[in-house]
Amino acid sequence: GQKVFEWDQSLEEVNMYIELPKNVPTKLIQCVIQAGHVEVGIRGHPPYLNHDLMHPVKTDSSFWTIEDGELHITLQKREKGKTWASPIKGQGSLDPYAADQEQKRLMLQRFQEENPGFDFSQAQFSGTCPDPRTFMGGIHTD
């Protein structure tokens, strides 16, 4: 019943926000990001977040920072455009409606990225949104 983290995502990243325990020096916070796993804890103690990720990430471009008492973990998606239902396997997955809304948001983000001169802020999808990774030839990477 306690909130452990909040999160959001873009086409390329999943961001996790974790409020850190009070009165613990930030230099004692430890975060380990692996391709399919994340651990957060206090050095010398078992991690209090120790879970498999929903999907694999690129470890060489994933990182963590601490600012204003909050740990911010940036996970670089291995599959750009893939809609994650949750960062952590088995934890707080999106319901089908929210998952569809998130996929629509990512599709609009993809359109905006591929067509910077156009404004998609008022665009809407009717019906089920296609997968942003595969729609119209898929996502183009540089």
From TrEMBL:
<feature type="domain" description="CS">
    <location>
        <begin position="1"/>
        <end position="88"/>
    </location>
</feature>
<dbReference type="GO" id="GO:0005737">
    <property type="term" value="C:cytoplasm"/>
</dbReference>
<dbReference type="GO" id="GO:0006457">
    <property type="term" value="P:protein folding"/>
</dbReference>
<dbReference type="InterPro" id="IPR007052">
    <property type="entry name" value="CS_dom"/>
</dbReference>
<protein>
    <recommendedName>
        <fullName>CS domain-containing protein</fullName>
    </recommendedName>
</protein>
<dbReference type="InterPro" id="IPR008978">
    <property type="entry name" value="HSP20-like_chaperone"/>
</dbReference>
<dbReference type="InterPro" id="IPR037898">
    <property type="entry name" value="NudC_fam"/>
</dbReference>
<dbReference type="GO" id="GO:0051082">
    <property type="term" value="F:unfolded protein binding"/>
</dbReference>
<dbReference type="Pfam" id="PF04969">
    <property type="entry name" value="CS"/>
</dbReference>
